[in-house]
Design brief:
With 507 residues, this protein is an alpha+beta fold. 36% of the residues lie in helices and 20% in strands.
Length: 507
């Protein structure tokens, strides 16, 4: 059994059900059984104790329950006291290691985020270091492949309602922070808040958080868990998904819209006018919330954030902006590192909607971000203001384009490095390319008004044989102009599939 092939960075991912041509099942019952026992061996070595408590939960995917049974069997066969949390969010599973009612030694979440219905995976947490990192997963897999098990016979399974405890935690936070002068226990009275759960696990936010606090949630959509995702991809970055909630907010005259991904570790918002607050805007909004209590803090973001966002963060909010690497774990780890070095960093956030706050264990929690947004919206509602005012000075590029170039050779990692190294040399000889003085991933170039009036970032994908390229411009057809400059260099690399770029240039 080759468990290593299932590792995707800090997660486990694979095909869990048949149904898509050319995609055979890789995340089998046998594989997750071995991984579960490997996790127990990992924890025993880490904690130095044999008696363990581990929580398990899942999102709405059709393969979740079958995989859960195999995982629980693996845990029970190792003598673990298993807490079956049923339908849950990924962040709530981490919180099972924190809440006094649970105090689990570890937690397993069965999810593949926004990936297609036939996929599934595992995200794993332990109390001492939160979500496991890439190296932790490697260690866990090694234990699983070596069958480093002790076969205890006193394992058991207990069913507990984690989402209710987690929801109560969020409700109390809202009540405390809003501190409504007239209706403390119903601080959202008079507000209309619409939620789009995308048929994932986020429907609980309506009936367990918003409604008990007095919010009118009529118009909320796709709350029912359905692992076939019949309405739209449960992903705040998906254009169809975002358009759907924008339309719903306008139709229902809502004060605020909240959209979650499948497992609720990401979220974005929609203002009362039906304008999306996503990508750069969700970063700006989250930063605006944080800087009220922590002026001058450092905001760590991924590498594809716009120059306009940088200007807003540094010049309007007057916080420091560190543009780091893609990958929510990378961004979070960088914020943690900064704090250890004595540099205050209260927020790590990707344009994808992954937002992790220092006050919340640096946990990327879409429901917690939504809760912070709801709190501020409620406060502003009391004052006769609306959320959009917080980011009204945020500017946006006139054009933006993302292109992805497949690397067709087998050693794609080395080939990608070669392209980037040689592009840097090329750029030094071509004045239209202005290399960013501070950059932590790939190559980022600026272009003046004569050569596209914008910027581009070319980098290696985290896991796939692809070079993603992000381009933004403040001139009409500026993205196309920048693409032409880049194409003049890339066209010489025969192992790059440049069809998308060629079609874009010719449009």
């Amino acid at each position: 059994m080759e468990l290593k092939k299932l590792q995707n960075g800090s997660d486990i991912r694979g095909v869990a059900v048949d149904g898509v041509e050319g995609e055979s099942v890789t995340l089998t019952k046998e594989a997750v059984y071995a991984l579960a026992r490997g996790f127990v061996a990992y924890l025993r070595k880490k904690y130095g104790k044999e008696e363990l408590r581990i929580a398990i939960g899942h999102d709405s995917r059709i393969s979740a329950k079958e995989l859960k049974e195999s995982i629980m069997q693996g845990l029970v066969d190792e003598g673990v006291q298993v807490c079956d949390c049923g339908l849950a969010s990924t962040p709530s599973m981490f919180m099972s290691t924190v809440f006094e009612e649970f105090k689990e030694d570890g937690a397993i979440m069965i999810t593949a985020s926004h990936l297609p219905y036939n996929r599934n995976g595992i995200e794993i947490f332990c109390i001492k270091n939160g979500g496991l990192n890439k190296e932790d997963i490697k260690s866990l897999i090694t234990f699983g492949e070596q069958e480093s098990f002790i076969n205890k016979e006193n394992g058991s399974v207990e069913i507990k309602d984690l989402l209710s405890v987690y929801s109560a935690f969020l409700r109390e936070l809202i009540k405390k922070e809003v501190n409504h002068p007239n209706t403390y226990d119903k601080p959202l009275s008079g507000m209309k808040i619409l939620v789009d759960a995308g048929n994932g696990a986020g429907g609980f936010y309506v009936d367990k958080v918003l409604q008990p606090l007095g919010a009118d949630t009529s118009g909320s959509q796709f709350l029912e868990p359905d692992g076939m995702f019949p309405n739209h991809i449960p992903n705040p970055e998906d254009a169809k998904a975002m358009q759907s909630i924008c339309d719903a907010v306008k139709t229902n005259h809502s004060d605020l819209g909240i959209i979650f991904d499948t497992d609720v570790d990401r979220s974005s918002a929609v203002d009362k006018y039906g304008h999306e607050i996503s990508r750069n805007a969700i970063v700006a909004l989250a930063a605006a919330l944080v800087c009220e209590e922590h002026p001058g803090t450092t905001i760590a973001t991924d590498s594809v954030t716009s120059d306009e966002l940088h200007d807003f963060l540094e010049n309007v909010l007057q916080v420091k902006h560190l543009r780091f690497k893609r990958g929510y774990k990378n961004v979070i780890n960088e914020a943690v590192r900064l704090n250890k070095e004595g540099i205050d960093s209260q927020l790590a956030i990707e344009t994808s909607g992954h937002a992790a706050l220092k006050e919340n264990y640096f946990l990327d929690d879409g429901a917690y971000l939504a809760t912070k947004i709801v709190i501020k919206a409620a406060k502003m509602h009391l004052e006769g203001h609306s959320l959009d005012e917080l980011i009204k000075e945020l500017k946006h590029p006139l054009e933006e384009k993302e292109l992805r170039f497949k690397i067709t050779c087998e050693d794609f990692g080395s080939y990608g490095d070669k392209v980037l190294e040689e592009l840097k040399v090329y750029a030094e000889k071509h004045g239209e390319f202005m290399l960013a003085p501070v950059n932590h991933e790939g190559l980022r170039f600026s272009f003046d008004k004569e050569h596209g009036n914008g910027w581009c970032l070319l980098r290696k994908s985290l896991h796939d044989p692809i070079l993603p390229c992000n381009i933004e411009s403040n001139t009409e057809n500026g993205c196309k102009e920048i693409a032409k400059h880049l194409y003049a260099f890339l066209k010489n690399y025969k192992e790059l599939d440049l069809q998308a770029m060629e079609e874009f240039i010719k449009e």
